[in-house]
Description:
Blueprint: H1 12-32, H2 37-43, H3 52-55, H4 58-69, E1 84-85, E2 102-103, H5 106-113, H6 123-139, H7 141-161, E3 164-165, H8 188-200, E4 204-208, E5 211-217, E6 221-226, E7 232-239, E8 252-259, H9 266-279
Parallel strand pairs: 3-5
Antiparallel strand pairs: 1-2, 4-5, 5-6, 6-7, 7-8
Helix pairs in contact: 1-6, 4-5
Amino acid sequence: xxxxxxxxxxxxxxxxxxxxxxxxxxxxxxxxxxxxxxxxxxxxxxxxxxxxxxxxxxxxxxxxxxxxxxxxxxxxxxxxxxxxxxxxxxxxxxxxxxxxxxxxxxxxxxxxxxxxxxxxxxxxxxxxxxxxxxxxxxxxxxxxxxxxxxxxxxxxxxxxxxxxxxxxxxxxxxxxxxxxxxxxxxxxxxxxxxxxxxxxxxxxxxxxxxxxxxxxxxxxxxxxxxxxxxxxxxxxxxxxxxxxxxxxxxxxxxxxxxxxxxxxxxxxxxxxxxxxxxxx
Length: 280
Ligand SMILES: [Zn+2]
């Protein structure tokens, strides 16, 4: 006899989690509902974001609109002139007993966006932001996953075709792309300039297939240069003997850098720093 089809039942703990999630969502709605009427739809405007990119400026734009709508306090006789206002969402003002409200616009903005930590952030904004993030994570789950996959594919393609940089002696440290570790990587011409500078310092450029490393060594240590970022070259110093396998605790002695703008007595500056690092 064939068994009748039964839908998958939620376990008791799944059921409990779902109930708690519903309750959190209701409580968040309740908190946002405590804001004055004219701000409620603004606080729920995260629904209007249609792409992940739309979400990036949402909080700042929201803070801006709230600041514009804040009621400026009448000027106090005792205080020098600087417009101030209480938070129109939660009614809070500065923590200082001598001040009313927040300075406009910066003090109120900091309270709204949570500048300098969450401690003094507007709790209604905190809740609105959490609702927004949950909503966006659900809404954009598929496009986020697609974007992550595309990114991984692009990276795999670049790793298979571009010049890679090795900046440690350990095989287990995979060679990296020009812009892997740094926000502003050097241009091709700039990299050539840095390579010339390394040559002046006595570094050898060792290239195996597409993997390049810049090395200077003596009997006691080996120095790996990393010229990938704009404005400076970083040097990592490793004590000899270099173990075949990377130790659990990174055996890098230390690192230092030389700024591109330094022109005079470069070799002297390099050796001073290298010797300081070795002496340590
Ligand atoms: Zn507030």
